[in-house]
Amino acid sequence: MPVNIAIFASGAGSNAQKIIDHFRDNEKIKVALIVCNNPLAGVLQIAEREKVPSLLIERQRFVKGDAYLPELKAAGIDFIVLAGFLWKIPTALIDAYPQQIVNIHPALLPKFGGKGMYGQNVHEAVIAAGEKESGITIHYVDGHYDNGDIIFQAKCEVADDDTPHSLAQKIHLLEHQHFPVAIEEIIGKLKC
Q1: DSSP string, 132-170
Q2: Tens digit of pLDDT per residue, the chain (192 long)?
Q3: Where residue 123 sits, what CATH number does that domain have?
Q4: How far apart are CA 154 and CA 146, in angstroms?
Q5: Which of 40, 79, 130, 148 is the Cys-Cys partner for 140 at CB 3.0 to 4.6 Å?
């Protein structure tokens, strides 16, 4: 039986696409579900095109209800990947999937993390702070924003002429290069 991954995403889904591509012919790991909180998100079109089932969720039930655990269990989900998912993960989900939820953050945590620190907000803050490097952090998810144990980091230079947009492009390259491989390694260690 393969390990079934659910990818949680809120936006365009470029990381989701790279993860789907990476595991397309993998017999041990399968992207089994896309979970999304935005009915207009591009990731839903990716799910449809790739024939991956999708689940559109609403905030009240996710945060204060059953966190969609019945649907996740029915889909046989073993592992959760947050790839640009903008809601805080509720305790019910963390308890149901201990050390089996990972997130990617577009900065070198612990710097530039926390509530409101996502996407362009992060890149603007990095540049405003005069940082000479930025990067990505892959970490386990706990009950606080961007706080779980760090699994992996990759760095890139912040050039003097970088803008939030150009820095975002550098970060996306790192995400696409490292996130699928890191997921595979994390799941490989879980199965040992």
Answers
A1: SEEEEEEEE--SSTT-SPEEEEEEEE--TT--HHHHHHH
A2: 899 999 999 999 999 999 999 999 999 999 999 999 999 999 999 999 999 999 999 999 999 999 999 999 999 999 999 999 999 999 999 999 999 999 999 999 999 999 999 999 999 999 999 999 999 999 999 988 899 999 999 999 999 999 999 999 999 999 999 999 999 999 999 865
A3: 3.40.50.170
A4: 16
A5: 148
Residue the block writes with tokens 């996407």: 119
Q: Pairing relation of β-strands 54-56 and 29-36?
A: parallel
pTM for this predicted structure: 0.96
Query: For residues 37 and 57, is the Cβ–Cβ distance under 8 A?
Result: yes
Q: Tell me how many domains the chain contains.
A: 1
User: Do residues 141 and 103 touch, judged by C-beta distance below 8 A?
Assistant: yes
The residues carrying an active-site annotation are 105
